[in-house]
């Protein structure tokens, strides 16, 4: 896929700001028309036959009022060193690419790599206890040798404790926001948010000047889950944003760990119930989690990879199976979401194919929902 032109990006922003047009409809429009710019050049008869586009949406697109708004927003991003990452751009975060509800555009500031090989989401209650703070700081300290990027939500409590511990240990960390990048919430964390941009940064799907409305927080939580290979819940009540993040992580087939807490503690009820209901693995130490994830510390000798002798044509396999085998041979061990994205397959279809290939002795499943050739 080619790099998007500036005007194509402006047209994509315009679709986002068009009344009645959501992420699914935008994908349909761009897929049917061949690009965002071509959507605005299409006529009414073509638009009305695209799934999800009715009379009202078609007329809103043809009105083109959102184009002027998008041009101003694009210029504002340029003037404020705000990076734009579009779903159809090759630079879009790979971990989000295959998700059914991934944002059409992400806004970011800072100095980080979305596609670092290891990412850990750390979430928890805003009313964190001293125990929760201590555990969070210990987790960050123990993660340092594994070269991970920590993802959290910049909120009070566990989130900000994790971000500040990362700053202390010079580890990359990104805060996913429920507002525009120029609306730091809570405002008390503005200094930390600024410091994070030296080795990490801020990310949101919301345009500049967007206020952190209540309904934007669950949407923010799905991005935290999507950007994380594994999510750790440090402390949580039985209801709250952390458990919403867990639900998204499970839907995305990502690993979840919960730190057990004292019985009767309101701060730990959520974690204890996640463990009880097998919705999260019990967190005992970073080392134990790293073993389960198949991670090695920096400087460790990588596990020996045996060469695989296999015919290039993969005779005897279906076209889809051959595609999976070719990808695994080319790239080595792959996370299931990454494999889904590269293969262009829905996760349900991919899971069935992988299971069949396992039965045939061609692939093996690894910790952390990863697969490799045998």
UniProtKB/TrEMBL annotation:
Pfam family, one: DNA_processg_A
InterPro entries named among the record's database cross-references: DprA, DprA_WH, DrpA_SLOG, RuvA_2-like, WH-like_DNA-bd_sf
First and last residue of the signal peptide: none
Positions of the Smf/DprA SLOG domain: 85-291
Source species, domain of life: Bacteria
Membrane-traversing stretches: none
Protein name per its UniProtKB record: DNA-processing protein DprA
Organism of derivation: Dyadobacter chenhuakuii
Annotated gene: dprA
């Amino acid at each position: 896929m080619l790099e998007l032109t500036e005007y194509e990006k402006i047209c994509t922003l315009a679709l986002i700001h068009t009344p009645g047009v959501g992420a699914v409809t935008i994908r349909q429009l761009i897929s049917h028309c061949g690009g965002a710019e071509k959507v605005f050049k299409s006529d009414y008869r073509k638009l009305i036959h695209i799934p999800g586009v009715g009379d009202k949406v078609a007329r809103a697109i043809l009105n083109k009022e959102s184009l002027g708004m998008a041009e101003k927003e694009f210029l504002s991003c340029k003037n404020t060193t705000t990076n734009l990452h579009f779903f159809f751009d090759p630079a879009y975060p790979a971990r989000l690419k295959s998700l059914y509800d991934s944002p059409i555009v992400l806004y970011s500031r800072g100095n980080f790599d979305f596609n670092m090989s290891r990412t850990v989401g750390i979430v928890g209650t805003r009313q964190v206890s001293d125990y929760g703070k201590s555990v969070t700081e210990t987790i960050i300290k123990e993660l340092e040798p594994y070269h991970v990027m920590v993802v959290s939500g910049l909120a009070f409590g566990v989130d900000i404790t994790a971000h500040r511990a990362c700053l202390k240990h010079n580890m990359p960390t990104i805060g996913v926001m429920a507002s525009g990048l120029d609306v730091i919430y809570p405002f008390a964390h503005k200094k930390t948010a600024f410091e994070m941009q030296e080795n990490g940064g801020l990310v949101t799907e919301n345009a500049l000047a967007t206020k952190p409305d209540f309904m934007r927080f669950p949407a923010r939580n799905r991005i935290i889950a999507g950007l994380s290979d594994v999510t750790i819940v440090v402390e949580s009540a039985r209801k709250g944003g952390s458990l919403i993040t867990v639900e998204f992580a499970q839907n995305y087939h990502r690993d979840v760990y919960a730190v057990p807490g004292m019985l009767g503690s309101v701060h730990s009820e959520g974690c204890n119930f996640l463990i009880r209901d097998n919705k999260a693995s019990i967190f005992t130490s970073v080392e134990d989690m790293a073993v389960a994830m198949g991670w090695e510390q920096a400087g460790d000798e990588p596990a020996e990879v045996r060469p695989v002798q296999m015919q290039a044509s993969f005779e005897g396999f279906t076209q889809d199976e051959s595609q999976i085998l070719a990808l695994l041979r080319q790239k080595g061990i792959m996370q299931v979401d990454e494999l889904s994205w590269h293969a262009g397959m829905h996760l349900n279809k991919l899971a069935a194919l992988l299971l069949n290939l396992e039965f045939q002795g061609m692939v093996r499943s690894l910790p952390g929902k990863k697969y490799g050739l045998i």
